Amino acid sequence: MPEKEHVIVGTAGHIDHGKSALVKALTGIDPDTLPEEKARGMTIELGFVFLDDPGYEKQIVFIDVPGHERFIKTMAAGASHVDAALLVIAADEGISVQTREHFDILRLLGVELGAVALTKSDLVDATRLAELRGAVGSFVRGSFLDGAPVIPVSSVTGEGLDEIRAVLRGLGRRAVRRPDNGIFRMPIDRVFTIQGFGTVVAGTVLGGAVRAGDEVEVFPDGLRSRVRGVQVHSERKDASAIGQRTALNLQDLKKEELRRGQVAGAVGSLVPTVRLDARLDVLPSVEREVKHRDRVRLHVGTDEVMARLAVLEGQTVGPGASALVQLILESPTVALPGDRFVIRTFSPLVTIGGGQVLDASPERHKRFSGEVVEGMRRLAGGTREAAEEAFVQAAGKPLDVNQAALKLGRSEAEVSAAADELLDAGRLVRVSAKAPGNYLHRSVYDRLKKEAEAAVREYFERNPGRPLMPYADLRAGFLKRGDARTLKLILDELCAEGILTR
Ligand SMILES: Nc1nc2c(ncn2[C@@H]2O[C@H](COP(=O)(O)OP(=O)(O)OP(=O)(O)O)[C@@H](O)[C@H]2O)c(=O)[nH]1
Ligand SMILES: [Mg+2]
Fold first, then answer.
1. Which helix (H) or strand (E) holds 236?
2. I need a surface site. Which of 25, 81, 389, 435 has the fewest CB within 10 A?
3. Residue of the CA atom closest to atom 2 of ligand 1
């Protein structure tokens, strides 16, 4: 039987508000499995629980997160790729510190669907519930939870559980498939070993598909491995694909080499980076403005890395404001344009903002450069605009549609269609008939052509007696900025135009 499409529901909310108890009441399975979690009565690690619901066309999977403020890093990893959020607020305690922080993180990560559970409803009366409903209404106003169901529920009496199940099914139906660039990518959120089976990494597949026997690379560490087995919902499968919770048994890798935050992906498909260009949105609630050179914790995918913030257009970004920034990382990670991220400061240790990656392998930038900022805006725009910018940035190196798609984090089909349009509009130049998918941007090509013509002219000015310029001299200079195929095309054109003679 084909695997049902997964709907991943992340819990969120303050410590002890009843997140894990609710998941257990809904599924019959305790997401807290570690002895330490049982002993302390709190969640420490992410819990993954499948809801058994044979009549439903999709498969709901819960990712239960810890509420403790020290485990925000774990929460951010768990929430990084959920389809919907279940925000848990204990009816007796109401909106608390990590209710706010988790809610901020969900919004920054771009979660679009969800519901609110008012847990421990058995501990309060109707007046208190009505009061809290009002408070929750204002709390979520203008967010993805505005107008979402708010359901009183008790894991002790069972009140509200059926309603929550029904709401989750509805959310699952509304969840839309993520765009697929067709290239296998799975941020790792769990590493474990199974006796007699070996090392296993698990995560949510964000792109493409993976099959038993495939070779994969673990980024950013460059570890290569063959997939011995694929598991979905604890069952052996031949393959898994986008959107599915997936476990991979990796050959010849030790548990010690693997960690949450790495990404398993198609070999060579991602480029480790220590710089990310991004749009940063600072939360309206932060107490002080975010400054150029601030040191932050960056949560991207399931990874956490330390980074410095280069504000490209000013010195500071105030509460509620957005800015284009470059994050300069202290250790490498991998990401793709379009990926969401969250940043937190050190003291106080709080979430201050987040945003979207625009370029995952940028150059170092000059600050206050109109050109840099314009380029970043184009990368954030439509596919045609972004594709054009990718060709501009590739300068004299002809870029293949496939490489451009990887760089942009968009599908090859989409980028190829954009490149065809750009070619028709005269914005791109096809360098060689032998490589039809390889293009230079027209502006770059025209500049290279002018430079080649000038180089020939200068040669004869400097060497007035000589009848010919050796090709090797021209080529040596040209190759610093362009490639040999481009030079050939340029020379053909200059000869055809009667400017040069061979
Ligand atoms: N009376 C009552 N108690 C509840 C209910 N749900 C949870 N509790 C109790 O609240 C405490 C905390 O519940 P958990 O489910 O562990 O809370 P949590 O939100 O998962 O906590 P962290 O994972 O540490 O963030 C436990 O002692 C539960 O028994 C409920 O509906 N009614
Ligand atoms: Mg818990």
1. strand 235-237
2. 435
3. 120
